User: What shape does this take?
Amino acid sequence: MTAVTFLDMFRNLDLAGHLKASALRFLLGFIIALATAFPIGVLMGWNVFIRKHCLPLFQILAPVPPPAWVPITIIILGVGLPMQVFLIFLGVFYPILFNAYQGIKDTDPRYLASARVFGASEFTLITRVYIWHAIGSVIMGIKIGIALGLVMLVISEMYGGNSGIGYLLLEAKEYFQISRMVVCMAILGFIGWFLIEVMKYVEVKL
Assistant: This one.
């Protein structure tokens, strides 16, 4: 039944187009979050001054559930791609930020002392010691961020837009089409599983 519904959605509802739209939104939000959260987390873990001035702000904002940002985001950014990307960004940002920060902060001082004995600069310490020590923690943050990012992808598409897997899920709910809801949920589950498996592979290779 589910397979038949999947084929029907693929043929008659342009499922491939909806998946492409969702993939674009998720990718944009994920890349922006990774490109900002990782360096900020590294700097907070490395430098006490930066940590002292940045960490309290993030500790205040992080407990706010990402879905709580939906109303004010719609007011400020309107309904569309910027709103959707920002909400996905929020879901991905904090897990990566705090895991990168904690991984850098917990770097074994003996490694740092050994590197300094051989004349390593602070830049070398960051790129060759701190980051490599924190890589496992960062990947764990990325895994959590993927899950939360998918949650925010669905919420953002339900609240704003006429395409995407979240939109299809909402439309199926409105017409009580349970089989289509199951297909959408299965697709989301598969995407989440696949992305996390990719990160596991990357972790093993690193």
About this structure: The chain is about 85% helix and 0% strand. Residues 122-159 form the longest helix (38 residues). The chain has a mean pLDDT of 90.
